Prior knowledge:
The complex is a heterodimer. Chain A is built from nine helices and no strands. Chain A has helices spanning 4-11, 15-37, 40-57, 67-85, 105-110, 115-123, 127-138, 143-150, 154-177. The longest helix of chain A has 24 residues, at 154-177. By secondary structure, chain B is α+β, with helices and mostly antiparallel strands. Chain B is 40% helix and 13% strand. Chain B has helices at residues 3-14, 20-32, 34-51, 62-77, 84-89, 94-107, 110-123, 132-139, 141-155, 211-217, 223-236, and strands at 263-266, 272-277, 280-285, 291-294, 301-307, 313-319, 325-331, 336-339. In chain B, the strands form two sheets. A four-stranded antiparallel β-sheet of chain B has the order 1-2-3-4, with no helix packed on it. Chain B has a four-stranded antiparallel β-sheet with strand order 5-6-7-8, with no helix packed on it. Chain B is flat and about 50 Å long.
Amino acid sequence: MVEPALIKAAQAGDREALVSLLREIEHQVYRTAYYLLNHEQDALDAAQEALIRIYTKIGSYEEKAQFRTWVQRIVTNICIDKFRRKRPSVSIDEHELVFQARDNVEGEVLSAYAAEEIREAIGKLPEHHRTVVVLRYLQDFSYNEIADSLGLPLNTVKSYLFRARQQLQVLLHDYQKGGVRG
Amino acid sequence: MNCEEVMELMQRHIDGDLNAEETSRMLDHVGHCPDCAAMLQRLTNLSRGLEQLPRVVPPYSLVDAILPQLGDWETEAAGAEAAEEQVVTAPRARRAARKRSEWIGRLAGVGAIAAVVLLLLIGGPNFLPMGSADRSKEAGSDLNNDRITTKMAGDNGSPAASSSGANMGDRSVTTDSPVTFGASTSPEDEPSASTKKDVGTNPGDPTSPHPDRNAAASPSASGDQTVEPRASADAQEKGPHVPSTNPVTPPPTAMIMQQPPDEEVLSPDGQWRAVILEGLFQLFRTDDGTLAYESPSNGGKRSGIVWKEDSSAVTYTYVDADGNKSFRYVDVSELKEKPAP
Lengths: 182, 341
């Protein structure tokens, strides 16, 4: 949570405050970009673009919106724009995440789907569904916060989210039935 | 209550959006409907999996990476926003450079060091910008430490890592279960810290390339080969990160809820996207993806999107709850709906 005082100082032209503020949101911005674009380099580019835009537009942020929804609006717009332009070449395999193995048998029972399967499945969703899922789960946004970020009606957010989960569930279920997991 | 209604309740349940009465209605149904029970289990698993997706962090500090650019902005940003485009593209020669070193000087701490380190790393010593000698002096002994870190990161084959300071022991879950790209250190954002001396303490084994991945990605027909790597891939997914908001639900099994596909038609000029989703007609601007218009949710069915050739309007067919069919017309300049002329 970014301190309102920090935002005010940044808006008032305090450059150090603005840079501090960018550091606070850097990771959340990148996380959204990463899961929307499913591509490390694209995500790095998009996140930097978003931070620069936030830097230059901080004056236009109004307090009636939550700061983090304002930030996410900027980064999601940039990402949507990016993957519309280069959709066919978006790849999840080029830059794989490296996951640290953890001995956690209990966790294994609890969670039926592997992170990577989920990530791949998210990549198959239509862009708005994908965006809603990412904001819901990677930013822990409420329905209302998602609606604010994306400028969508609340009901639309819900129907995107519900539909996205249904699609994911079908994709992952098919994947499991495909026997890949033994 | 039919299964479709229960589906909505289950979805909202997963988001913690049900009151007690709705919850008990849902559970009543699930208790005697194995299909819905299975669906609930699957949705719950899915949701938990989504919650546990790794909180990825960038391999280097993005703010440090853009700091030099931000310096260039400074002179303009205060004034006109209109100058924006210019600023992005044009590196301002001396004036901006001087200004930049002034204010970077003010930052004095991590940021400046990191910027230097980043430049060193990317461009080598020959790439030092004007005035960086001063900055290095300011940075003093810290720079040496940073250099060491940088080298380590470089040795591990992560070319773009800037590793500003490498303080690893902070709040981020990624420290426990590092999800890093390559082996670079991932400094957390710590805005005000001015010195970072505990260098090179990356605890997690710098993760090796992806041996498991390959095996998992190409499951062969022979059983043994696939089972092992899969199992370890399963173990890998467990981030310690379990966001708290959503309640967890028990029972298990299967049902297919296939919804009719959406209609989605781009306008001929590519500026608009008309969509029919769950009975509603929606119109989006393609440039920023915003919703420009949505039909009233008064039930009935909508289908058959057709654009006018000049993209000035879109029509679709509406069948109301009584089965009366009509054609609707949405003019994109007015964003209002009316009966088709």
